[in-house]
Amino acid sequence: MRERRRRLQALVKKEFVQVLRDPSSLLIAFVLPLLLLFLFGYGVSLDARRIRLGVALQDRGAPAHSLAAAYAASPWFDVRQSRDPRVLLEELLAGRLRGVLVIPQDFSRRRQQGEGGLVQLLADGSETNTANYVENYARGVLGSWQEIEGRRSATMVEGGPELVPRIWFNPELESRHSLLPGAMGIILAIIGTLLTALVVAREWERGTMEALMATPVGIGELLVGKLVPYFLLGQLALLGSLAVAVLLFRVPFRGSAGALLLTSSAFLLAALGQGLLISTLAKNQFIAAQAALVSGFLPAFLLSGFVFEIASMPLPIRILTRIIPARYLVNSLQTLFLVGDVWPLLGRNILVLLLLAAIFFGLTARKTVKRLR
Predict the structure, then answer these.
(1) Of the spans 34-48, 78-92, 135-149, which averages the highest pLDDT?
(2) Is 95 a domain residue?
(3) pTM score
(4) Which domain holds residue 214?
(5) Which single residue of 101, 123, 151, 318 has CA 20 to 30 Å from 306?
(6) Which of 94, 122, 152 is a domain's end point?
(7) Residue 149's pLDDT is what?
(8) Are residues 145 and 178 in the same domain?
């Protein structure tokens, strides 16, 4: 037992020295997380604000001017107003406007006659998400204006139904609050899969694997020795990312440190197991890195629910996401940050991650045995 412990300590020390001597590992573990957090914190946002909107005010009546003023005062639009809609349509075709609202000449007359009045909205459908934002925001401004005008003219029915929306967990609807926890999941996926994918492949390239095979080191000791340093690197990167997200970007963290540690540990075990399996199968670092990106980073980015909603994906893709470890981490991190310790959800995700880790390590041990023989 003592001899086994000494061998394991020697392997862990060797891997730590190798990590410290490899600048690329340190860059991926500590610099890349900061770059990604700053990118998603400052450069990427799913919130569409100050959308460039043209308002063609063809009516000179007071209701038309009031409606145009409501759009100009909205925080969601950057309004350019003109009497001639053709000028604004040219701006729309040139891509300088994302939508044009046309208030026709008979708008005020129809309002006074009780016909409601019609306005036309033209949106640039070449950017689908922005077009949806333009439509929804324009409907919202119009609805608010109608409510205010109805109260002024005392035409609203007393005691009618009123919708009072309340948004839980993220009342400001800041996309940053969900993007940054998801970005932390992508960071752990990169560290766990990419770094460890290069470990055994590097040993084969440098010819040191033969030296390891000549020692009495067992398969379990070899895997654990290579696992521990990168597990600690991943946890350090997670703590650094947590500090940046909470202190710099003011993302709320409503969960507990223990739940975060358990969730990240379960995911790192799965990601490290996947990376070790790749590095065991590939003797070339380039091939191992490419395999790690294709099987680790891209599924984590595209199929984890980080950017694209899983529920909106086709059924075969939704089934495929169930074997993507990052899916369970991203979901857990967003819950920990915005909701808190929801153990029915966190416990299920942790169990699935541990199951995936067991599968990866079992396959790695089996393939490594065949290689060492």
Answers:
(1) 78-92
(2) yes
(3) 0.76
(4) 2-44+174-372
(5) 123
(6) 152
(7) 75
(8) no
304 and 252 inside one domain: yes
Largest CA distance in the chain: 95
200 CA to centre of own chain: 30
Q: Is 253 domain-assigned?
A: yes
Between β-strands 120-123 and 99-103, what pairing exists: parallel, antiparallel or unpaired?
Answer: antiparallel
Number of CB atoms found within 10 A of residue 133's CB:
20
Confidence of residue 372 (pLDDT cuts 50, 70, 90): very low
Q: Is the pLDDT of residue 14 over 80?
A: no
Quick one: 40 and 95 in the same domain? no
Q: Look-up: residue for tokens 């690197």?
A: 233
Q: Are residues 36 and 125 in the same domain?
A: no
Is 161 among the domain residues? Answer: no
Number of domains in the chain: 2
pLDDT (tens digit, 9 = 90+) per residue, 168-197?
788 877 888 888 998 998 889 888 888 888
Higher pLDDT, 286 or 245: 245
SS3 assignment for the chain: CHHHHHHHHHHHHHHHHHHHCCHHHHHHHHHHHHHHHHHHHHHCCCCCCCEEEEEEECCCCHHHHHHHHHHHHCCCEEEEEECCHHHHHHHHHCCCCCEEEEECCCHHHHHHCCCCCCCEEEECCCCHHHHHHHHHHHHHHHHHHHHHHHHHCCCCCCCCCCCCCCCCCCCCCCCHHHHHHHHHHHHHHHHHHHHHHCHHHHHHHHCHHHHHHCCCCCHHHHHHHHHHHHHHHHHHHHHHHHHHHHHHCCCCCCCCHHHHHHHHHHHHHHHHHHHHHHHHHCCCHHHHHHHHHHHHHHHHHHCCCCCCCHHHCCHHHHHHHHHCHHHHHHHHHHHHHHCCCCHHHHHHHHHHHHHHHHHHHHHHHHHHHHHHC
